[in-house]
Amino acid sequence: MTGPSAPVALTAHLALVSSISFGGFPTVLPDVRNFVVGTHRWMTDQEFANLFAMAQSLPGPNMILMMSFVGWKVWGFPGAVASAFATFGPPCTMYFAAYRLWDRFRAAPWQHMVRLGLVPVIMGLIIASGTVMARAADASWRAAAVTITAAAITLATRLNPMWMLLAGGALGALGLL
């Protein structure tokens, strides 16, 4: 399916984007989707959305699992392992070093300003990620209607999102999506 440079390209890209994933790996999911689906065509939008859904349904570190699935698709088991390490290795190393520095200057006034400045950045990245995943998953008008309905219910009520996930799963199991 891919040449020998594909695993190296995927691993290097995941290591790079995981290093800049403020707010967690989902904030760089649009970039990963563009790299995997748009640029290299290692999978389709629907396959990417399906891997996302499968990773979200499993307990544990969801994005590491998803990137392992992507790595598996590109290069089998070695790709899954390399993708997992590229997803959590660089940020864990940086977070450890940053935490030690952050804790050392915990009383500094600039810490509060940094926190306040990161909030809109992270919110924007999460919204972008949600938009990309919704567009990838909405392959039919029914799926788009379910996404719009779920978003409206989420914004208008305090209903637990688990009920919407269950309803979406039931609609999919019945073949209605």
Overall description:
With 177 residues, this protein is mainly α. It has a domain at 5-106. Helix content is 79%, strand content 0%. The chain is built from seven helices and no strands. It has helices at 5-19, 29-39, 45-57, 62-104, 110-137, 141-156, 161-173. The protein starts with a helix and ends with a helix. 25% of the residues are buried.
Short description:
This protein has helices at residues 5-19, 29-39, 45-57, 62-104, 110-137, 141-156, 161-173.
How far apart are the termini? 29 Å
Largest sheet: none
What is the C-alpha radius of gyration, as a whole number of Å?
18 Å
Which structural class best describes the helix and strand composition? mainly alpha
Shape: globular
Count of discrete alpha- or pi-helical segments spanning 4 or more residues? 7
The proportion of residues in beta strands is under 5%
Instruction: Report low-confidence residues grouped into runs of 5 or more.
Output: none
Instruction: Encode the helix/strand succession as letters.
Output: HHHHHHH
Helical fraction? over 70%
Q: Give the number of DSSP strands.
A: 0
- Mean pLDDT score, rounded? 90
